[in-house]
Design brief:
With 126 residues, the chain is an alpha+beta fold. 25% of the residues lie in helices and 32% in strands. It contains three helices and seven strands. Strands 1, 2, 3, 4, 5, 6 and 7 form a seven-stranded mixed beta sheet that branches. The protein is globular. It starts with a helix and ends in a 13-residue tail after the last helix.
Length: 126
């Protein structure tokens, strides 16, 4: 199903279109749920230099392309959904984006060595 269909099924009012920067900080843009189809097709714009991606203000904006398979409703606010995004610049994956690096590493492991990467998360707060 499309992002728009999932948003309607969850009766969301807003979406947090999110990605992680090179320091592990989650960056997000809050968009109205009515824009879900447009954001899925065209992405949500971000300034790469402001998100610590070794870019300058002269570089083109990054587009966060939401992955509808990752959409979840926030448990503390039932009107907001969170969705992970893949970063692109001018229609190509942003090479230094953590999600893109992980995707490429997984593809290389599978293609070159027939291995599947499995990870676990250990949540800590300091």
């Amino acid at each position: 199903p499309s992002l728009e269909e999932k948003v309607k099924a969850l009766n969301l009012k807003y979406l947090l279109v999110s990605f992680d920067d090179l320091f592990g900080v989650t960056r997000s843009k809050l968009v109205p749920a009515t824009a879900a189809a447009e954001v899925e097709a065209n992405g949500a714009g971000f300034a790469g230099f402001a998100a610590n991606f070794d870019m300058s203000p002269a570089d083109a904006d990054m587009l966060a392309m939401p992955d509808s398979a990752t959409l979840v409703r926030l448990p503390w606010d039932k009107e907001i959904g969170w969705v992970a995004s893949t970063l692109e610049v001018r229609g190509k994956p942003l090479a230094q984006a953590p999600r893109n690096i992980l995707k490429k590493a997984c593809e290389n492991l599978l293609g070159d060595h027939k291995l599947v990467l499995k990870t676990g998360v250990e949540c800590e707060f300091f």
